[in-house]
Amino acid sequence: MNNQFIIQKFGFLGNDFLNEFQKHAVLADIKSKTEIVREGQKNKYVPFLIKGSIKVFTLNDGRELIYYYIKESDSCLMTFSSIFTDYISRVYAVAEEDSEALLIPVSVMHEWLLRFPEINKLFYREYDKRFSEIMSMVNDAVFHRLDKRVLNYIRQQISVTGNNPIKITHREIANNLGTSREVVSRVLKKIENDGDILITKEGIKVAVNENVRLI
């Protein structure tokens, strides 16, 4: 059990809560590409991510629409929300890389919301963070051209994984942006010709300083 993570994340709730957390938390290692939950499935746990990243999305006609990524020290807003209703997941969640998480049974979390009302601060923090991310996604989809959306998506993946260049296929980008592989291939070529990215055998590289074009 990662005691430093627990204290940093939940220390403000006091020792009684920390003892409860230690008693009920389950430490889980999650392999990359593992499906954690799917739409329509009953949520069993609320995850708190120690390391790695998890993609939260929905599917429509086989195409993904990404809502947000859970990063280190984050939790899943949609899982939190299910506690107040029927515990049924309305999203898919898949590990983007090898990850480590602390899992709390949803029934226990429901009880904690009554016994330790200060825990609601965690919910509101997650809500504020996810709402901002979803609004950014909607703004991107409505107001930006596809080349801008593709470039923003690549930057997002680099930010999530910490890898630059990043290994990602044209089909993965297409699925996540709701378009076709052929369209993404043409857009990537245009972005590369514009000097915003460099495509190599190691992956797609974006300039760290966005004002500097790659040569």
Automatic annotation (TrEMBL):
Gene3D superfamilies: Jelly Rolls, Winged helix-like DNA-binding domain superfamily/Winged helix DNA-binding domain. SMART domains: HTH_CRP (SM00419). InterPro entries: cNMP-bd_dom (IPR000595), cNMP-bd_dom_sf (IPR018490), HTH_CRP (IPR012318), RmlC-like_jellyroll (IPR014710), WH-like_DNA-bd_sf (IPR036388), WH_DNA-bd_sf (IPR036390). Residues 160-210 form the HTH crp-type domain. Pfam families: cNMP_binding, HTH_Crp_2. Coiled coil: none annotated. Keywords: DNA-binding, Transcription, Transcription regulation. One of its GO terms (molecular function) is DNA binding. CDD domains: CAP_ED, HTH_CRP. One of its GO terms (biological process) is regulation of DNA-templated transcription. This is Crp/Fnr family transcriptional regulator.
